[in-house]
Task: inverse folding
């Protein structure tokens, strides 16, 4: 068994924040519900990735996170599984709106996140829909009317649907900004800010980014509260 510091060192990890909990170095250590552990086993995962090991215990404490990590590091389940556990604790009525909201820059990425959510959430009976542009709104609105626990959305389409008043974000208490740097590069900052205005301020916010320029720092400073910062790899 590796000590926390040793584990961090081996993966060039730095974690900054108050009272940072030690990482989960195995799936057994997570205490996740058995149906989720079963999915991980079925997917052939032998251990948490470094970002998962570091961010799961922090996210489970209900704290805000800003994670700077390259693609392919397993960020999706890094935020989805704690989101599922958050969802179970809340037991909101999905017909009144989603509890978990994930913002993603593109249709392709949003769809991949939804696929992962459906796969890992299936046995926990978690419902999820994906909202993105370039496709008819009808089926997306129908899903929202039926009620979903998790919404994965591109900022443009979600904003359109909000303006139509066809979704309420008043129950959202777990907000994820995935690939935040890319969303800002694509000019989504005004839409993101409008969306976040509809989300109660009493919430948990997790932000993921591959780079850490001042625009991303600024939006992190505005939207996150006392976040733990997790850096994975050679990011300054
Ligand atoms: P990122 O968002 O950081 O780019 P993803 O979340 O898309 O990365 O994950 C990349 C790939 O790694 C996916 O195919 C995912 O299923 C897989 N993966 C996630 N967690 C693990 C794990 N603990 N062990 C092995 N593979 C994993
Ligand atoms: Mg990703």
Result:
């Amino acid at each position: 068994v590796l000590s926390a510091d040793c584990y961090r060192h081996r993966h060039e990890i730095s974690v900054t924040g108050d009272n940072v909990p030690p990482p989960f170095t195995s799936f057994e250590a997570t205490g996740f519900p058995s149906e989720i552990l079963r999915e991980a086993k079925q997917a052939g995962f032998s251990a948490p990735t470094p970002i998962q090991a570091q961010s799961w215990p922090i996210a489970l404490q209900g704290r805000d996170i800003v994670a700077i990590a390259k693609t392919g590091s397993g960020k999706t389940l890094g935020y989805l599984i704690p989101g599922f556990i958050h969802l179970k604790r809340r037991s909101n009525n999905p017909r009144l709106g989603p509890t978990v909201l994930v913002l993603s820059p593109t249709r392709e990425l949003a769809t991949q996140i939804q696929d992962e959510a459906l796969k890992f959430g299936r046995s926990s009976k978690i419902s999820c829909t994906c909202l993105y542009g370039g496709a008819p709104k009808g089926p997306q609105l129908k899903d929202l009317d039926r009620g979903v626990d998790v919404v994965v959305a591109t900022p443009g389409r979600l904003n359109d649907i909000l303006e139509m008043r066809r979704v309420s974000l008043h129950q959202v208490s777990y907000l994820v900004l995935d690939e935040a740097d890319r969303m800002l590069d694509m000019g989504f900052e005004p839409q993101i800010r409008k969306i976040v205005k509809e989300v109660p301020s009493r919430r948990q916010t997790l932000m993921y980014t591959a780079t850490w320029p001042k625009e991303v720092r600024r939006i992190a400073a505005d939207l996150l509260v006392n976040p733990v910062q997790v850096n994975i790899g050679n990011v300054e």
